[in-house]
Amino acid sequence: MQNLPGPLKAVVEQLSSLPGIGPKSALRMALTLLKMPREKANGVGQAILDLRESLCLCEECACLAESSPCAICADPGRERDQLCLVPEWDALLAMEDMGVYKGRYLVLGGLLSPLDGIAPDLLEIDRLRRHLGSGRVSELILALGATLDAESTASYVKNLAESEFPEVRVTRLAQGIPMGAEVKFMDRETLRQSLVHRQNI
After folding, report:
1. Are residues 127 and 187 located together in one domain of the fold?
2. Could you tell me if 44 and 84 lie in one domain?
3. pLDDT computed for residue 59 by the predictor
4. How far apart are alpha carbons 79 and 102 in whole angstroms?
5. DSSP string of 155-191, one letter each residue
6. Is the distance from CB of 165 to CB of 135 less than 8 angstroms?
7. Residue 32's pLDDT band (boundaries 50, 70, 90)?
8. Same domain as 49, residue 144
9. In Å, what is the CA distance from 129 to each residue of 137, 140, 168, 180?
10. Poorest-confidence range of 123-127, 147-151, 175-179, 184-188?
11. Which domain holds residue 22?
């Protein structure tokens, strides 16, 4: 990679900094962009710039959206008494794709991970408290996955809810999700079974 022309090397370095993309894949992508007609390559670049400029975090659920509140939070047909807690936005997308859940969401912004320096103050815990303290939520559904970080986060949230909001029932996705798995990688049927057969914790 050392012998690449400067501009091409710069693009390869930027692309290879993305998760899951190594230097060789980044080089193939950069060469593909280079072979594109100028208009199409400009379109890709503009779409990336627009992505940063056009999206915001929903004030209600903290998911990515074009406006706040997002379409899910603004939907009057959604059940207000159920709140599904997911770690990231892609987990919300996976839950929505199955078309079964009709409540509302809160994107936590990650999972507790002391080894990585992710403490409760770096997550949307205050926003969760506001939702649970609103008096509208009767059930908090934990859709955090089954990793060790997910388990410790679930335990933290459960203890918080039990001590501060004992009137809120805390459930979790149950059947079908194996240990070590993440919600965003589950197939629709596994997610559907997990949601339908959720249990108290």
Report:
1. yes
2. no
3. 94
4. 6
5. HHHHHHHHHH-TTSEEEE--TT--TT--GGG--HHHH
6. no
7. very high
8. no
9. 11, 11, 11, 27
10. 175-179
11. 6-54
Closest CA to 147 of 171, 173, 126, 129: 173
Write out pLDDT tens, residues 115-170. Answer: 888 999 999 999 999 999 999 999 999 999 878 899 899 999 999 999 999 999 99
Copy the structure tokens of residue 184.
């965003």
Tokens of 62: 């903290």
Asked if residue 144 is part of any domain, the answer here is yes
CATH of the domain at 93: 3.40.1360.10
Which amino acid would we find at residue 96?
E
**Orientation of helix 89-97 relative to helix 188-196, angle to 10°:** 90
54-68: pLDDT as tens digits: 888 999 999 989 989
86 with 159, same domain: the answer is: yes
